[in-house]
Each structure stands twice: as structure tokens, then as C-alpha cells.
Amino acid sequence: MDRDAWDRRHRERDSLWHLDPNRFLVPEVEGLTPGRALDLAAGAGRNAVWLATRGWSVTGVDWSEVALDRAQRLAEHHAVEVEWILADLREWQPPPALFDLVVIIHLQPPGAERARTWGKAAAAVAPGGRLIVIGHDAANLTEGWGGPQDPANLYTAQEVVDTIGGDLEVVRAERVLRREEAEDGVHHAVDNIVVAVRR
Fold it and tell me: Which domain holds residue 107?
């Protein structure tokens, strides 16, 4: 999906003030001392703004101008400040070893692009900081519901570990089930989560 397609997708969404963060992010962040956070592929800002409401100094990066406009309005609505950067993650390079928390949630480009972004994200983690990657798992095609339908856009937790494990200590890497309610009933999507720390 290209940048224009993402702009159209964000224009069509109704939930401007939606602040519910990713359900798997919350327990990983609760209890951490707020510091500098980086949200890559921040979209309309729900995770970045949620972090800001909890005292984090947040930078959110996305390539959709429409999404970041919504994100800025969401931040204003919740009376927090977030630094928004309009950039293509294939080209943008985060400052090294600067962030206490780096988050990538449901970024699903093809394999080589994913790996490069994971590598950049790992390099941006400061000593004592952590990287959290959450995405649609490869098993979701046959065992889950929704999400990307092209296998090239799906991956496993092990793929993340293989990419970032040399630089960071992996403390969690597993599949998780995400409960979703739709018009035809309750479904379960298969996601994965990897949490890694720079000691």
C-alpha cells in the first residue's frame, strides 16, 4: 500500500478522538519510568498520544500527512505535546541510542523493508531502554481473522528476534491472540509481540 492509499484510508476513518492504545502495549509500558519514546508508523497517533498522557516525551513518525494531522488534533484534544515527523521509514533514520522506548505496532511491509526498520529501531534504543514490536503474525492467515492477506506482509516473532537479538536482549517473543468483535460475532486474530532491552 502506498502513501496515497494510506492517506485515503485515514480520511475514511471516523474515530478522530479514539485514544485506546494497543492492548498488548499497555502492560509492557505500565510501571516503566517515563522518558523519551519513539513511535514508528504512528498512524493517527493513538499510541503516541496515550504515552504522552502518561508522561513520556514522544516523537511519532509516519508517512501519511492525513494521519499526522489527525494525530496532532488528538494530542491537542488530550492537552499533550508530541513531536510529529512526516517521513518515509524506508528513508528516515532515527537518532542512535536516544530513546528509552521504541514502539513499532502493526507495521507490515515486505520482509526486507521490515528488517531494515527493525534494525533502525533497535539502534535508536538507549542503554536501559526497550524496543516493543507488535504485529500481525504469519499464522493469522490460516488460524486468525482479518489483517493483511498477503503472506509477504506477515512475519513471526522469531524473525524480529533474528534481526534485533544481537544488539538487544530479548525478554519476550511470542504469539498472542487479539479478540475482536465484528458484525458477525467475535473473532480472534493472531498477533505477535517482541520485547527487547538494551542492557
Answer: 40-197
The answer to whether residue 7 sits within a structural domain is no
Is this prediction's pTM over 0.85? yes
Would the pLDDT of 75 be above 60?
yes
Phi, psi of 164 (to 5 degrees): -110, -10
Distances (CA, A) of 158 to 18, 85, 192: 31, 29, 9
* Count of domains forming the chain: 1
